[in-house]
Amino acid sequence: MEKALLNLIAGLIVGLIIGGGLVYAFAGAPAQTVTTTITETAGAGATVTVTETTTVTKTQAAAALPEEIPIGVLLPLSGDLSSFGEKWKNAITLAEQDINEYVAKMGLNVKFKFYIEDTKTSPEGALAALQTLAAKGIKLVIGPAASSEVAAVKSYADANKIVIFSPSSTAPSLAIPNDYIFRNVVTDIYQGKALARLMWDSGVRKVVAIYRGDDWGVGLFEVTKKRFEELGGTMEGVKYDPAATELSAEVRKASSLVSQFGAGEDVAVLLISFEDDGISVLTLAANDPVLSRVKWFGTDGITYSTKIAEQIGDIMVKLNVMSTLMVPPESPKKTAFMERYESKFGVEPDSYTLNIYDNAWILALAVLETEKYDGETIAKILPDVAEKYFGVSGWTNLDEVGDRLPTDYTIAKVVEEDGKYVWVDAGKYVPATDTIQWFGS
Predict the structure, then answer these.
(1) 392 alpha carbon, distance to own chain's centre
(2) Tens digit of pLDDT for each residue in 304-350?
(3) How far is residue 147's CA from residue 159's CA, in Å, rounded to a whole number?
(4) CB distance 407 to 328 below 8 Å
């Protein structure tokens, strides 16, 4: 039997046994046995049947837990990532509903409550928001979104034993063992490899990167430059202040560097930005006679951004911006969640929306497993819970520093369909083979 089939069956088993992804038992109550049988075609007409028997024990009450179990959520509801923040808020709404329905089925007399605070997509806002949550006695927090925000809250979280579980912070500089920072997302070491391979295979040999001067932007620029130059290319950078409201000087500098490179078919611009700053740069670039005629590439800071598609979709099409984002593997759970989400909220969820839904489940399951609401305890058990969990974003195994193991990256772009500008997947990057696979080719 092929390994891929075995993995699929394993995923289906987990998904069918418990919708939330719990595959371990609770202690202290009579056991209940669940048996699941799955039959799959293995090729050449052959079939394989797998029977999985799991023992799940249920408690009538978790005496050591408060009746309301609070989980904080730090979201960028305003600022440079606001359209992502709204999507993630929707996912938290679904997670709260689903988790509490699951807890009720188990007969537990507890309820999870999610407390959302706006970080304003800023380091200062993230720290203030975390302190607001801490004042409520909250020890478990989902988010924040940006690596600069995670860096800003790290010392406070470590000192106060508050678990931080980000769905989207990717800066390699935050891959630190034995702290209270966990990230259900792949670090940018792999996005850097994806971008380098994408640009190289597109015939690019010289790149000018326009990038945010924060933890995330600097980190992603450095790992991408390193890998691209290992392949044989050349990369120059133009760093800008993330707080700046006017970026024409930086765009002019990038244009000058592109001109020095010759502005030919082998020259490209890489944009490492969030939504609002990305809109500023791309709007200026579209009117620049040099920048508007070379290849453009983007990153997860803009990929599948509703704001980008709605406000500058025409520019994205004109510049033909190809952009990367980690993509959860396909599964029945992912498909069902995406259909449910889009039906309810009228917008397609991005990869980090799937991640944040799973973050909520993993934290909730860690509390139920330990029967303790304690940051230090949860920090110790969280990697074990994540390893056993199969969610809407797939398996959520974490590495030795608490970051998610590598997945594929989608290569997306904006196109015009029926008079609207929308994101579509054009291909994917596979880290295991360092290759680009284009769709429809």
Answers:
(1) 12
(2) 999 999 999 999 999 999 999 999 999 999 999 999 999 999 999 99
(3) 19
(4) yes
The verdict on domain 188-328+409-438 having CATH code 3.40.50.300 is no
Distance in angstroms (rounded) separating the CA atoms of residues 175 and 209: 24
Among residues 423, 410, 418, 210, the alpha carbon closest in space to that of 310 is found at 423
Q: Counting every residue, how long is the chain? A: 441
Q: What is the DSSP secondary structure assignment for residue 172, as one 8-state letter?
A: G
Pairing of strands 206-212, 267-272: parallel
Cα torsion 420, 427, 148, 349 to 10°: value is: 50
Task: Indicate the burial class of 56 (C-beta count within 10 angstroms; 0-12, 13-18, 19 or more).
Answer: middle
Out of 3.40.50.2300, 3.30.300.30, 3.30.230.10, 3.30.43.20, the CATH code matching 68-185+330-395 is 3.40.50.2300
Task: Indicate the SS3 state at residue 146.
Answer: coil
Which H/E stretch holds residue 85?
A: helix 82-105
Helices (H), 205-261: 215-231, 248-261
Q: Taking the model in full, what pTM does it have?
A: 0.86
Which stretch of DSSP H or E encloses residue 4?
Answer: helix 3-17
How many Å is the maximal CA-CA distance in the chain?
73
